[in-house]
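Sample entry (364 residues):
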Amino acid sequence: MPILLKYRVLGVRDSHKETIYDIINVELLAISRYIPPMQKPPSLNFYQLSPDAILNCVEKNGFIPTGEILQLNSYENRVFNIKLEPSSAYPMTEIIAKFYRPGRWSRETLLDEHAFESELKHESLAVATAYTMKNGTTVDEFDGIYFTFFEKIRGRLLQELMPVHFKHMGRWLGQLHNIAERSIALNRPTLGPSNDSKWAVLDQLYDQVSPEVRGEYFDAAELIFSRLDELLLDTKLIRTHGDLHRGNILESPTDGFVVVDFDDFVNGPSVQDVWMLMPDTDFQETDEFKQFVLGYEELRHFPFHELPLIPLLRGYRIINYAAWILNRWSDPSFPKIFPEFNTYKYWAEETESLTRIARALDQE
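Predicted structure, serialized as tokens:
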């Protein structure tokens, strides 16, 4: 289960009995990370953000906080629900403050994300957008830590996804991709043939993988990456959400579906936004997928020719996930969250997952 922490600042109301999922909702099984090689660990200030520091950042940008702060579950960033006193300039009563892990994104990459979200909302897609700061942009900085304030959106995770939901999601994604293909995000990563960090990630992981399975792990990983690069050569790349799974889709009482957390926004193949939504790995004959395609094709042709990329993207995600943990190991919380990382059991299970994908490739 996700970890939920609370700050008690000037008497925070105990709302643990409510199941409210806010704009930033990140779960362990839902993480797909672009990992620049060998990131520098953040300063201690990122691990020890104080309530006073957070509230000062809020106040300096014109908001009037009540002093109530609720920390939301996010392993990658530091995310807080901030209660406000309404004012003529800012009539809302809550905002979401997101403090980005230093060393991962530049100011320009964050501005690209926020511009894309604003473009989607302008085209009537239900997404949350960032507020403009006093500096005239959507990104400010505190002690080397970039931060942004997002609008608060209330919604609930769907407890059960029915075929009709998939049709709705397909239509939503078709509209997003129609908008996304108009341009490329110049400052975001590109999931293309050798345009990202995949090969550097393998070099970084080499000494970490248990010697008993190292050869098998890297044989499978190299086959997956080589085949992925080969197929991506002839694939059109567009702007994608990048981490579109069920945990990032909320059901809103006013907007229907709302998609959140564009933190992994990337230029990539269209199916990057498809495969994580499906109920299982062998999904092409399922009612869910058929309904999804029906909804998508109301607005654009579904990229059936990209489906062979999906097992490769799954393998890519498995490898990047291990690198993500490794690059965060200096974070005091990570050894507690991932106690089996770097054990034989961990790497044996990872190797089994990769070799299953690689064997299927050999049989094609």
